[in-house]
């Protein structure tokens, strides 16, 4: 998974994260921030005096990201008061925590009632790619607020519902260099409705393993 979080996919990852992140954030937290290389992207979504915090368990991993308050801490015991964080990012880190469910419970505890949690994960998945009409694909925006077809990514929405998050939403991006990266993973009926297009039926390929990026928002 780690290789999927670097070049040449960084521009897509950055855009996908920012597409679902609210603006005007006063307090943002990146849980499991590593060296903070992606944490600073949050600056685009914060108020001018907004606070960005990067939390990492391993002090040796923390970098020197300017404008970010970096602290050493554990995701299963977040050192913050209840309901004090507006937005939480957790980028490819949840599966690395010793107790993922406890980490989610902690994120929910510190998140403001109107706050937003955004998880990112990536890996190899069996998928059935759709071949939509080129005339449709060429009109699509780079980020599409639709879930993937065939229930892809449902394990993440179930995980968040179990943790108490009411309405998790998932987006999936195919990491093959073809834009828009979501298109081949979307159901044709959903896509036609989204773009207000006459219904069409796209050919569906046999299942194959492909690298997929998931963004889950709750």
Strand order of the largest sheet: 3-2-1-4-5-7-6
Distance between the termini: 22 Å
Beta-strand residue fraction:
25-35%
Oligomer: single chain
The total count of strands amounts to 7
Poorly predicted tracts of residues: none
Average pLDDT score: 93
Number of helices: 5
- Could you state the order of secondary-structure elements as H and E? HEEEEHEHHEHE
Q: Approximately how much helix is present in the residues?
A: 10-25%
Secondary-structure class = alpha/beta
What is the general shape?
A: elongated
The major sheet is characterized as: 7 strands, mixed
**Using only CA atoms, what is the Rg?**
18 Å
Summarize the model shown.
It is built from five helices and seven strands; from the N terminus they run H-E-E-E-E-H-E-H-H-E-H-E.
Describe this structure in words.
The protein has 218 residues and is of the alpha/beta class. The protein is built from 5 helices and 7 strands; from the N terminus they run H-E-E-E-E-H-E-H-H-E-H-E. The chain has helices spanning 10-20, 100-110, 134-137, 154-162, 188-194, and strands spanning 25-31, 46-56, 69-72, 85-91, 111-127, 169-174, 208-217. The two termini are 22 Å apart.
Using brief descriptors, characterize the structure shown:
218 residues; alpha/beta; 7-stranded mixed beta sheet; 5 helices; elongated
Give the helix/strand layout:
Layout: H1 10-20, E1 25-31, E2 46-56, E3 69-72, E4 85-91, H2 100-110, E5 111-127, H3 134-137, H4 154-162, E6 169-174, H5 188-194, E7 208-217
Parallel strand pairs: 1-2, 1-4, 2-3, 4-5
Antiparallel strand pairs: 5-7, 6-7
């Amino acid at each position: 998974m780690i290789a999927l979080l670097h070049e040449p996919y960084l521009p897509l990852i950055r855009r996908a994260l920012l597409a679902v992140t609210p603006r005007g954030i006063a307090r943002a937290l990146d849980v499991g921030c590593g060296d903070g290389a992606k944490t600073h992207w949050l600056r685009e979504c914060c108020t001018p005096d907004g606070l960005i915090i990067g939390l990492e368990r391993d002090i040796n991993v923390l970098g020197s990201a300017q404008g970010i308050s970096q602290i050493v801490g554990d995701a299963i015991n977040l050192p913050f008061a209840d309901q004090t964080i507006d937005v939480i990012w957790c980028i490819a880190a949840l599966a690395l925590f010793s107790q993922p469910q406890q980490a989610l419970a902690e994120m929910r505890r510190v998140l403001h009632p109107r706050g937003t949690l955004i998880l990112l994960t990536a890996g190899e998945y069996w998928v059935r790619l759709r071949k939509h009409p080129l005339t449709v694909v060429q009109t699509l925006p780079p980020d599409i607020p639709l879930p993937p077809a065939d229930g892809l990514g449902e394990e993440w929405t179930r995980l968040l519902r179990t943790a108490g998050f009411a309405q998790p939403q998932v987006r999936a991006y195919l990491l093959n260099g073809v834009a828009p990266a979501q298109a081949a993973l979307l159901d044709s009926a959903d896509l036609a409705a989204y773009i207000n297009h006459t219904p069409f039926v796209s050919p569906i390929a046999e299942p194959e393993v492909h690298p997929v990026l998931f963004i889950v928002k709750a």
